[in-house]
Amino acid sequence: MTLSIEEQRISFGRELIEAGWLIPTLADGVNGLGDPAEAVVEGLQAQASRIAKQQNYPALNTLRFPPVNSEQLLRRTDYVASFPQLMGLVSTFAGERKEHAALLAAAEAGESWQQQLEPSAFALIPAVCHPLYAHLEGRTVDGECYQLTGDCFRNEPSEDPFRMVAFRMREYVVLGSEAQARQHRDRWIELGEEMLSALGLEIVVESANDPFFGRAGRLLASGQREAKLKYELLTEVFPGHPTAIASGNWHQDHFGANFSITAADGSVAHSGCFGFGLERIMLALVARHGLELKDWPVPVRALLGL
Amino acid sequence: MTLSIEEQRISFGRELIEAGWLIPTLADGVNGLGDPAEAVVEGLQAQASRIAKQQNYPALNTLRFPPVNSEQLLRRTDYVASFPQLMGLVSTFAGERKEHAALLAAAEAGESWQQQLEPSAFALIPAVCHPLYAHLEGRTVDGECYQLTGDCFRNEPSEDPFRMVAFRMREYVVLGSEAQARQHRDRWIELGEEMLSALGLEIVVESANDPFFGRAGRLLASGQREAKLKYELLTEVFPGHPTAIASGNWHQDHFGANFSITAADGSVAHSGCFGFGLERIMLALVARHGLELKDWPVPVRALLGL
Predict the structure, then answer these.
(1) Mean pLDDT (whole number) for A67-88
(2) With b meaning 16 or more CB within 10 Å and e meaning fewer, what string describes B280-306?
(3) What is the mean pLDDT of residues B57-79?
(4) Within the 153-192 window of chain B, which residues sit less than 8 Å (CB to CB) from chain A?
(5) Residues B110 and B247 placed together within one structural domain of the fold
(6) Is there a single domain that holds both residue A260 and residue A119?
(7) Which residue among A6, A244, B40, B246 is least packed, with the fewest CB closer than 10 Å?
(8) pLDDT category, B2, cuts 50, 70, 90?
(9) Cβ <8 Å between B91 and A92
(10) Closest Cβ–Cβ partner in B23, B92, B100 for A88
C-alpha cells in the first residue's frame, strides 16, 4: 500500500512523537522538542556559529530579540500588505472585576472568551531579522554581519511536522552596498550547503518565492523568483518531494528604504540574509539518520557535539 | 540631587541601551539583547545546566517549548482566573482580498487595524513550565526533573529594564509526591542562592506571593505567602529596593489535579519548580560589576565561560 505524501508526513510526525523527538501541545501545529531534538538544535547553532566566526566580517554581532515586538514592525516591513494570512497580533485584558467575571463565565461556558479582549500594540515576529532593521533605523552600515536566533510565528497550522506555527531560525544578515548584501547571501548559500551536506543531507539549491497574499501577491512572487532574490536549500525528506530547510535572500533596498538605513557611499542600504530553519533541519536529519541519536554516524554526531 | 527609585530604574535602562547591553524595540517594554548581554545569558544557562547535572535525579530531561501555545493552557492552568491582566492571546487574519483592502486602509490611516482580526486558539505562555503539565497529562510521575528554557509574555509594559514584557526563564521542575516536590524546591533555593552568590550578588531569600488579580486575588496572595508556597531570591540592585531575580515555588497539587497527573503512590502529584529570571540576573550582574564585561572579576567571567 502506497501512502500519499500527506499520509507520509503525518505518519513521520507520529513516529517523532512516539520516539520522544516531538511533543504535541494543546495547540494545533505547535510542537515542543524532546531531549534529542533540542540537543540537535543546539548542535546546529554551535556549528553555524563556528562557521560564521571563520568568515572575515568587519564585525560579527550576536543580538537577540524576543518573539514579541510591535504591530508597527509588521506594518513597516510591509508584512501586513504581503503576508496578512501568516500574522499573529496580541490581544490583552484591560478590564476590572466585572469584565473579569464576564470573561470567566464565557471561558467556562466554552464560548470564545477571547472576543472580550482588546487589541494591544504587541505582535509576534514572523522572521528574526525584522527587529534588526528597526534597530538600525537611521544608521549607516558597511557590511557588518548580525547573527540572530529566535522564535518566529506564522499562522499556518498543519499536521505536517515540517510546517510548525512556532519555530526557530538562525539568521546571518548583512547590510551595506548592493554588492555586500548579494555577496553575503551567495557566500552563505555555499556555506550552508557545505554545512548541511557534511551532516549527511543531499542538498539542492533552487530559486524560490515567498507566499505573498492574493492575486497581486502572485505577481510579486513571480517577480521575486525571476529576479532571483530568494534561493532555497532543499532536501528530499520524502522521495520526490523536496522540503526547504534553509534559504538565502537578497531584499534589495526594501528594508533599507523602509527604515532609512544608509550604505557607506550614501545610497540606500541593501540587505541580504541567510536563514537556517532549525527544527526543519533537525527533522530532516532524523529522517536521514534515524530515530536513535546514538546510532547516527560518528562524524555527524561529532559536528553536532553529540 | 537624589533620584527617586523610578528615576534610578529608568536612568539605568538608558545606560544599558547606550552601552549596547539592551536594544530598545518599537514595542514598549520589549528589549532586545546586545552582544555582551546575550553572552551572559548563555553563560548563566550553561552554569545552571552544570549544577543540575551534578544532582541525583532519577532522570533529568531537557525539553523545549515554543513561546506560543493554546488558549486552553491559560484556562486549564487557571491563569485566566488568577492573572488575566498579564495574558497575551493571539489574533489572526482570516479574510480574503476585500477584507485585506479594508485592513490595509485602516493601517495606513493610523487606525487600530487589529480590530479587524479574529481571535485564534493561540496564546502566549506566561511561564515555561505550563506546557509541561499538559505534556504529562494522565501520566504517573516519580521525582523526574525537567530542565526548561523559554520565552514568557506578561503584559506589564514598563520603562524599568527589570520588568520586561517578554523575557526568558530557565526552570527546574519536579513532579511526584509532596515530599519530592517540596524538597526539590527547597534544594534549588539553596543551589540558586549558591550560584548567584558565586557570581558576586548578595542574595536574600524571602517568602513572597504572585500578583493575583482583584479583591479575591488578594486573599489568594496572602494565603500563598502564609503557606510559604513561594520564595523569591532578591538582590538590592538599587540600595533599599530588593529586586526578585529567581524564585522557588511549591504548587501543591494544583497542576497535578488540573492535568490528572499521579504520583507513584497513586495520590495526585505535587509539583515544585525553581526559576531563574535570565535577563533580570544579567541586569543585576551589570549593576554589580559594571558596563564593561572585560572588567568583571575573573572568577565571575570564568563561571560564565566568558
Answers:
(1) 97
(2) bbbbbbbbbbeeebeebeeebbebbee
(3) 96
(4) 153, 155, 164-168
(5) no
(6) no
(7) A6
(8) confident
(9) no
(10) B92
